[in-house]
Amino acid sequence: MTKVAIEVLENDQLTNAGNGGNLTETGNRQNEAGFAFFNSAANGIGAVSLVSKVPNPIRPAAKMAEVQSAGNDELGRVPPILLASSDADEFCKRNGFFDEQLEISKKSIKTFQKYRTLLRAKADRDENDDGEPSAKVIKTSDTVGAIAILG
Questions:
Q1: 51 pairs with which residues across the strands?
Q2: Contacts of 125 (CB under 8 A, 6+ apart)
Q3: Which of 20, 105, 119, 146 has its CA 20 to 30 A from that of 14?
Q4: How far is the C-alpha of 10 from the C-alpha of 77, rounded, in Å?
Q5: Residue 102 DSSP class
Q6: Would you say 37 and 43 are in contact if contact means Cβ atoms under 8 Å apart?
Q7: Through-space distance between the first and last CA atoms of the chain, rounded to whole angstroms
Q8: What global pTM score does this model have?
Q9: Domain-by-domain residue ranges, the chain?
Q10: What is the pLDDT of residues 26-39, one digit of tens each?
């Protein structure tokens, strides 16, 4: 239930998550997600970070939690709780979460272009400091979350 709620938020370009998330300063997609569950039968924690072509990062995070909850693998290795970058992308590929054709959303591109312009303007101002105050910065949140308590 919680995973599905997060997927809805990740799929909505109005949120800064998943497919609608902000790009890096170099214009790349790098998303992350964490997932945990606790119940009478099992507990699991998992997270992925810096995934590049994953429309719903909550899905591999939930899979990591499931794998971690199952305990050591057949060789006795303890499964990781967190995978990042190329290891996270490889995990996503092996488990069907990776989408090589995933396009960057129009909202993400527009936001990237806006801030790239602002960063360049700031660099120019810093180089030619004229004592003028910087533009007002509006603070926003850049994550989504959900908690489900089942009774």
A1: 31
A2: 132, 134
A3: 119
A4: 32
A5: P
A6: yes
A7: 13
A8: 0.81
A9: 2-127
A10: 999 999 999 998 88
